Structures are given as C-alpha cells and as structure tokens.
Inverse folding.
C-alpha cells in the first residue's frame, strides 16, 4: 500500500485544515488507518486512528477538535482539524495496517505502511 498525504499549510490559530491521505496499490478495504505528527527533536505522536471497520481513537490533546474519517470508495482517510493552536504545528503523516489491534493504534511500530508527511503550521 502506498500512501500520499496532502492538505497541510499555514493557518492562523483558531482556524481549520483538512488533511487527506490517499491509498493506492491495493484495495483500502480491511485496512485500519491513522494519523501521527512529529516535531523536530520529538518522537512521533499519535493523533487519531480508525480501526477497521470504524472504531475511532483520538489523542487526548485533540479530542473535540480533530475528526478522523474515511471514504472507502475513494481509498482516502481524512483528518479534519478545527480550533488549531500553535501547539498543533508539526509534520503530519498517515499510516495504514491490515492487522493492527485497537489497543495498538497509538503505537507507531504497530503500523505497517507510512506516507510522507505534510507540514502544518499554526501561527499565533
């Protein structure tokens, strides 16, 4: 599975962005998908995930502000980010796995496939 993330950019605090991650190479059916973010000098941080077919999980820091969703007909997973703050500034990457369990959604090493990152910058 190849993953291509897009949608990052520069936004003011309080604003919104929607990230997209398109999967190609094989059917998206049966794959769990997730979003992580990373800033320089820090470990990759779990943001949100959907375990197939639809159980979602969010990091506490984004609950109520971010929403993960997917369109299986388009092989795409989305991350709607609202009420953004400068602390959300990071490179956001998408991930996929056909075998991950719910309790491991937040574990980077549990995911099999990764897309390249897209930069999100939130100005104060």
């Amino acid at each position: 599975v190849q993953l291509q993330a897009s949608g990052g950019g520069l936004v003011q605090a309080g604003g919104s962005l929607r990230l997209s991650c398109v999967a190609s190479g094989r059917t998206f059916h049966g794959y769990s998908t997730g979003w992580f973010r990373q800033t320089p000098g820090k470990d990759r941080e779990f943001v949100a995930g959907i375990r197939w077919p639809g159980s979602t999980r969010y990091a506490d820091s984004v609950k109520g502000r971010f929403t993960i969703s997917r369109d299986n007909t388009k092989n795409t997973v989305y991350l709607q980010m609202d009420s953004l703050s400068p602390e959300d500034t990071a490179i956001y990457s998408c991930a996929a796995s056909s075998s991950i369990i719910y309790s491991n959604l937040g574990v980077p090493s549990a995911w099999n496939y990764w897309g390249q990152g897209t930069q999100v910058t939130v100005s104060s």
